[in-house]
């Protein structure tokens, strides 16, 4: 779901336009929490705070998993310390997947700090570690990958 443009409803300016713009954002956020929205939520545990990385699983026990198989339209990545949510990233899945494919390809030449790792129960999962400071590329790059 994209945000409707509040200015399309007529001539608004100043405070009224800003209020309508904010209200459209609030409505989108409420929609994100409804069953109509297909959202995948992952919680990054404490380790991100010391490593500066978030983890995206793409395979488990030899089968695609996690980001590789999600049917969601939106991906929410919560950064937690204990039970305290310190922040989050909300990303459209198609852009996130494109970014992670690119990150996976450049990881092999050791650029940007991306790293392929194994972990989880019995080291059965394959994951890509992504430095948190690169996640802005998902949203801000015009043609990121």
Describe this structure in words.
- It contains four helices and seven strands, in the order αβαββββαββα.
- The protein is an alpha+beta fold.
- The mean pLDDT is 86.
- Helices cover 30% and strands 31% of the residues.
- The chain has two domains: 1-37, no CATH class; 47-72 and 92-140, no CATH class.
- The relative contact order is 0.15.
- It has helices at 14-32, 48-51, 93-107, 136-140, and strands spanning 39-44, 53-60, 63-64, 74-81, 84-92, 115-119, 125-131.
As a percent range, the share of helical residues equals: 25-40%
CA radius of gyration: 18 Å
| Strand numbers in spatial order across the main sheet | 3-2-7-6
Stretches with pLDDT under 50, minimum 5 residues: none
Give the tally of structural domains.
2
Tell me the fraction of residues in β-strands, as a range.
25-35%
Oligomer: single chain
Mean pLDDT: 86
Question: Can you write the helix and strand succession as a string?
Answer: HEHEEEEHEEH
Distance between the termini: 22 Å
Shape: globular
- Please identify the structural class as seen in this structure: alpha+beta
* Main sheet record: 4 strands, antiparallel
The helix count comes to 4
Q: How many β-strand stretches?
A: 7
């Amino acid at each position: 779901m994209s945000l409707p443009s509040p200015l399309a409803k007529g001539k608004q300016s100043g405070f009224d336009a800003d209020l309508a713009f904010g209200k459209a954002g609030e409505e989108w956020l409420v929609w994100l929490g409804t069953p109509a929205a297909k959202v995948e939520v992952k919680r990054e545990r404490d380790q991100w705070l010391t490593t500066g990385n978030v983890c995206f699983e793409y395979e488990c026990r030899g089968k695609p998993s996690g980001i590789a198989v999600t049917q969601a339209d939106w991906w929410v990545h919560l950064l937690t310390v204990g039970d305290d949510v310190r922040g989050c990233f909300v990303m459209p899945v198609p852009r996130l997947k494109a970014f992670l494919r690119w990150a996976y390809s450049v990881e092999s030449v050791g650029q940007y700090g991306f790293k392929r790792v194994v972990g989880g129960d019995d080291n059965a999962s394959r994951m890509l570690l992504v430095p948190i400071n690169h996640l802005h590329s998902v949203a801000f790059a015009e043609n990121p990958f």
